[in-house]
């Protein structure tokens, strides 16, 4: 079956040979070597940051490719067994799994569980949506922003964050030099367009988004707007998630006020946070405040991540042990939780590090 598609494909490539420069393929391969070596979020790596071509996966392979051949490639790709009768096998859209993961794996974040599930489910169930889904995650480091982005990717795509339909950008890693802003703009637009052409539903994650240059955000703003298409390409089935520490102080103040007043943490609602979170985002120096995403109201949901309490840290420690096939008793979990830093100091209420460092910390408690 695949052979019947391979011949016309070769002919197509011969007719348009000039649109597949070998140096572009080399750049893409080098980028992905670094990308997977760094293991998405976790690896220690030193990218060649002065080489602009290594910052984002350039999309030279696709933008000039004729639309007729794009359809041909899609059919050929499906003939190799990568597509299902119901659509593209790379896309799973397991909303039930997402709901379960948010409920059982995410601790102390009732607002996140509700808002993210509602937003993603509504988008998936509305194929005629008039704009891409744009979410902005806010809160202290370690409260679960990266973790939830992973859960979304894991449940919407067969290969999770390593899917061909998912792209992660880390602001200081991929866009470190202000002097290369114009280069980054072109590369980022090209990378997004490339992925949208290759996948019917895409996910873009921007970590440390507060460090993005406003000009860089505005360069991709049209892809998140209410347009039928941009230069002949529709971006309405894309999801954009921005992760930021902006608003952490505001979120913590609200949580602390509830605690001081004797109210339950679970009684904190979006009405207590959303307006203040938007206001702080607008007042903060950085890409968000100065970008048209804010002035044009293109962010669909501001998602607040509450600071974690001692009891939540213990649950994270339990999960970290379980991930290693170990079962820890209450005394051990207490020891791990006590080793964390808490604020305010006099009350030791909120974990200053969240759950991010727990997998490394439990190494000290292993026999």
UniProtKB/TrEMBL annotation:
Q: Which residues form the signal peptide?
A: 1-17
All copies of the Torsin-1A C-terminal domain together span 308-365
Q: Does the keyword Zinc apply?
A: no
Annotated GO molecular function terms are: ATP binding; ATP hydrolysis activity
Source organism superkingdom? Eukaryota
**GO terms under cellular component:** endoplasmic reticulum lumen; nuclear envelope
InterPro entries (UniProt xref) = ClpA/B (IPR001270), P-loop_NTPase (IPR027417), TOR1A_C (IPR049337), Torsin (IPR010448)
Keyword flag Metal-binding: no
* Keywords, ordered alphabetically: Signal
Question: What family classification does the UniProt entry report for this protein?
Answer: Belongs to the ClpA/ClpB family. Torsin subfamily.
State what protein this is by name: Torsin family 3, member A
Native species: Fundulus heteroclitus
